Amino acid sequence: MTRKAAALLVLLALLFAVNTPKVLAAPPGITFFTPYAAIAVTPGETITYSIEVRNQGSQIQRFSLGVRAPEGWTTRLTSGGYKIQELAVKPGDFETVTLTVEVPLKVDQGNYQVQVLAGGTPALTLILDVTEKGIYQVELTTDQPNMEGTNRSTFTYDLKLKNSTPDTQTFSLTADTQPGWNVQFTVDGKDVTSATVDAGGQKTIRVSINPPSKVEAGTYKIPIRAETQNQRAEVVLEAVIRGTYSMNLKTPDDVLSTDIYAGGERRLTLQVENTGSAPLKRIRLSAQTPAGWSVQFDPDIIDTLAPGETRDVTATIRASEKAITGDYVVAMTASTPETDSTATFRVTVKTRLIWGVVAVGIILLVAAGLSWLIQKYGRR
């Protein structure tokens, strides 16, 4: 080799040494340790490792740090409150490094590796067992979507709104119902129209539904929605109306007054009408009367009354013999365990004509007697 060729080779070697970046490899004597080398995690979970880096050599060791993780996973290496890329450890000493790993929400079930690199070389391998398949969506669910009651019932459902996204979301709450239905949303004991759920969190929403008073018997589906501009979740609730229970106790001419003589009786025709949408069973007739009065019904129990059907009942009122002239109140009620109706009558007690004649006769006799006495003894 000529002198010129040798000089050229030396020059090229120097240039290569100057322009090649320095790689910090993991020095001998450096060990990495954490007690939790393999753990079970769930989608969206954040795990924090405390890693001890010990220098078992006799010189200060300085080396680069890095993390190798599956695609889509987020990791951070910090120490002393700083994000670090290199670490220096004194001989016979150790430093503590914190590794934070965020499991993505959208991830398949299975085992995943996260490696801590020292000088570009794997120095610590961590195993994370994702126990369930992750999703990137919102869910609105309930354990009990079906309720049964009457038109007077309040149907109460507890919903779970789960936000399986990486951002806090505020959801508007709506219900798709027919006219006359009332729907109220409650969160944390407060009536609301929206709910805010943290990323990866969930919130319980109570839904209270009141049907219209004249709702027909049947099964009603009520879609409930929680939605943002980009996300939407829905659950369909079901309210089963057994039927509306209502009745009307009245008279054929709607007149609620009558008269009676003391000690006498009066018969009235009543009508019991089923104004609801469900059959009424074992309708009992009863009355509240003044002291010494009574009311008898024929019949006093109606076994069944279909919706829209009307049944006549005869009520016989007996007034007390000691009743004096004036107005009295008699309340008659038709009732079942589900509903009742009351008709209040004004009953006027009248004096019999014969007693009036007798009273007038007595007055005339007393007057005549007084006149005879005056004529006979008045002159003395």
What is the topological layout?
Layout: H1 3-19, E1 30-33, E2 38-41, E3 46-55, E4 61-68, E5 74-79, E6 82-83, E7 86-89, E8 94-102, E9 110-118, E10 121-130, E11 137-142, E12 146-149, E13 155-164, E14 169-175, E15 182-187, E16 190-192, E17 194-197, E18 202-210, E19 218-227, E20 232-241, E21 247-250, E22 257-261, E23 265-274, E24 280-288, E25 294-298, E26 301-305, E27 310-318, E28 326-335, E29 340-350, H2 353-377
Parallel strand pairs: 2-10, 12-20, 22-29
Antiparallel strand pairs: 1-3, 3-8, 4-7, 4-9, 5-6, 5-8, 9-10, 11-13, 13-18, 14-17, 14-19, 15-16, 15-18, 19-20, 21-23, 23-27, 24-26, 24-28, 25-27, 28-29
- Tell me about the largest β-sheet: 5 strands, antiparallel
Structure classification: mainly beta
Q: What's the CATH H-level superfamily name of the largest domain? A: Immunoglobulins
Low-pLDDT parts are 10-24
Highest CATH level, the class of the largest domain:
Mainly Beta
Number of domains: 3
C-alpha end-to-end distance: 192 Å
Overall shape: it is rod-shaped
Helix content: 10-25%
Q: Could you report the average pLDDT, rounded to the nearest whole number?
A: 88
Strand content: over 45%
Q: Identify the strand order in the major beta sheet.
A: 1-3-8-5-6
Description of the molecule:
The chain is mostly beta strands and 380 residues long. The chain folds into 3 domains: 111 residues, Immunoglobulin-like; 105 residues, Immunoglobulin-like, CATH 2.60.40; 107 residues, Immunoglobulins (Immunoglobulin-like), CATH 2.60.40. Helices cover 11% and strands 53% of the residues. It contains 2 helices and 29 strands. It has a 5-stranded antiparallel sheet, with no helix packed on it. Strands 2-10-9-4-7 form a 5-stranded mixed sheet, with no helix packed on it. A 5-stranded antiparallel sheet has the order 11-13-18-15-16, with no helix packed on it. The longest helix has 25 residues. The N and C termini lie far apart (192 Å). About 4% of the residues have low confidence.
